[in-house]
Amino acid sequence: MQYIRLGKSGLSISKVVLGCMSFGDPARGIHQWALDIDESRPYFKQAVESGITAFDTANMYGLGAGEEVTGRLLREFAQRDEVVIATKVHARMGPGPKGGGLSRAAILTQVDESLRRLGTDYIDLYQIHRLDPEVPAEEIMEALHDVVKAGKARYIGASSMWTWQFAKLQHTADLHGWTRFVSMQNQYNLLQREEEREMLPYCLDQGIGVIPWSPLARGRLTRDPEEQTLRSDTDGSGTILYGGTADADRGITDAVAAIAAERGVSRAQVALAWVMHQPAVTAPVIGTTKPHHLTDAVAAVGLRLGAEELARLGEHYTARPASGF
Fold first, then answer.
1. Could you give the CA distance from residue 125 to residue 77 in angstroms, rounded to a whole number?
2. How many independent structural domains does the chain possess?
3. Of the listed 61, 126, 202, 242, which one is catalytic?
């Protein structure tokens, strides 16, 4: 495993971040393909033994079950100071004005709930899962600053929004001397590259770490287009994100398959290595429901793609609407 600073911050993370949306309770929330705590345990053990130190979850995953499983299993397999725990706030977790969104009341309530479920005194990276357009930027950034100053979070990050919105929040923090975001978690993969237009150049310029979600496009880069899985059959968001571009994507997926065959590696390794080669990317967030998913992710760290291979992987991409906000 290799390790890298998250943007210009002093926080060091592994080059692979374990995404924990797959862990929790399939009876809770909307993810029928989620693994319960006993099914999840081998993945946390494998991750820690592989040198992965960064783990990303959210309060909404399994309506809290994801944080509970993540916290409990990390306590089983690692010392607290050896791992970086990231979680998120925004989604509706309950009724009333404090049950969701990014109001000051909601942020201060939900951070305490996340700490309780994770079983920790602090969150390493506390991220806003989406932007709440109904709350002023000043209220959001001051509340997050107070969370940091209270010692409940060490750093703050954001996820999936327009670049101008992200820049506005950062500028608001700068004007008041409040805590700045150190990271952006956005959708970025070979099938969705619209973030290259503004967000990734902005993050490079500002020294903001990028930890993209869905680097394998919900698994579409790892298999033939006709092949289905339980997640692809039940994950409505995957259909929304990638369902309308199958014909345009065929040249990309064929290139991934061809290079994987030539190299004697999996398609996942090739697609992940492409993401890791991008200058703005710090470390992709990798979801897993099978042991080889983590094996592929770790192997991708050391897979170096040549200029000709990178060109082949990128040549079939066509512009498409940005998604995932």
1. 20
2. 1
3. 61
The per-residue pLDDT for range 159-179, each reduced to its tens digit, is 999 999 999 999 999 999 999
**pLDDT in the model for residue 287:** 93
Q: 31 with 233: CB under 8 angstroms?
A: no
Alpha helices in 101-151 (DSSP H): 104-118, 137-149
Those residues of the chain that have pLDDT short of 70 are: 29-30, 226, 228-246
Residue 128 lies in a domain: yes
For residue 43, the enclosing domain spans 3-216+278-304
Alpha carbon distance 263, 283 (integer Å): 22
Q: Note whether 138 and 146 are within 8 A (CB).
A: no
Q: How is residue 307 annotated by DSSP? A: H
Asked if 61 is an active-site residue, the reply is: yes
175 within a domain of the structure (yes/no)? yes
By the 8 A CB rule, do 219 and 284 touch?
no
- DSSP class per residue in 179-222: PPEEEEE-B-BTTB-GGGTTHHHHHHHHT-EE--B-TTTTTTTS
- Residues 57 and 89: their CA atoms lie apart, in Å, by 10
| Rg of the chain (C-alpha set) | 19
Q: Is residue 147 part of a domain?
A: yes
**Paired strand residues for 321:** none
**Residue 126: which of 179, 73, 170 has the closest Cα?**
179
267 domain-assigned: no
